[in-house]
């Protein structure tokens, strides 16, 4: 799977790639993956030729043993599939850096009743530096609500964790059964100054936090009006100033 992905990355129609590397240096690989662990980045998982994508996160890396720990794969079908197939393709992005690698199953473990997996630290990774808009953290848990599907089959609510010109990170109040590609319509975010931002959203990442009864999602804005784009840009610029270090 890595060879096919590398071919696509270096084709002429691949957008926004500044710098892509096929890394084999063990120390570099460990350093990059530790960055994703420290950021608690949500990672996308593909298993074999299964059409559905799943989610996990790196929760531990032991350079001495060459073993890495992955959090429970969600939805549950991915957990069962990984135990059968014993291999998966991992992809993640954080702060403009994208990583992809293939991982081999070693063993299943559990902690506090929640399963996790031991896998080999990969010998090869694709490391990509992209031109990407930085996400700005949001303070005060600004409230969010939206409807799932074009006909509003279900009302979903929570709060926003971060924001960019392209998308938003959300924490939902319930263990929602969402999937990559789902669309949320009639979305509303309460923003500072007692204002509201309206938009539609495509779900890109999903992770259920079972012990908290919440769901983390990352979404991409759809059909954002010019007026809302301008309001969003002003808000992000103001937030960036607020988060800038004092000189």
In short:
The protein is of the alpha+beta class.
3D structure, described in words:
There is one protein chain. This protein is of the alpha+beta class. The chain folds into 2 domains: 2-130, Pnp Oxidase, Chain A (Roll), CATH 2.30.110; 136-243, Beta Barrel (Thrombin, subunit H), CATH 2.40.10. It has 4 helices and 16 strands. The strands form 2 sheets. Strands 1, 2, 3, 4, 5, 6, 7, 8 and 9 form a 9-stranded antiparallel sheet that branches. Strands 11-12-13-16-15-14 form a 6-stranded antiparallel beta barrel. β11 (143-148) and β12 (154-163) form a beta hairpin. The longest helix has 18 residues, at 226-243. The relative contact order is 0.13. Residues 6-19 have low confidence and may be disordered.
Using the alpha-carbon principal axes, give the shape.
globular
Distance between the termini: 47 Å
CATH superfamily of the largest domain: Electron Transport, Fmn-binding Protein, Chain A
Give the helix proportion (percent range): 10-25%
Q: Could you name the ranges where pLDDT drops below 50 across 5 or more consecutive residues?
A: 6-19
The fold-level CATH name of the largest domain is Pnp Oxidase, Chain A
Note the quaternary state here.
Answer: single chain
Pairing-aware structural class of the strands and helices? alpha+beta
Secondary-structure element order, as H and E?
Answer: HEHEEEEHEEEEEEEEEEEH
CATH top level assignment of the largest domain: Mainly Beta
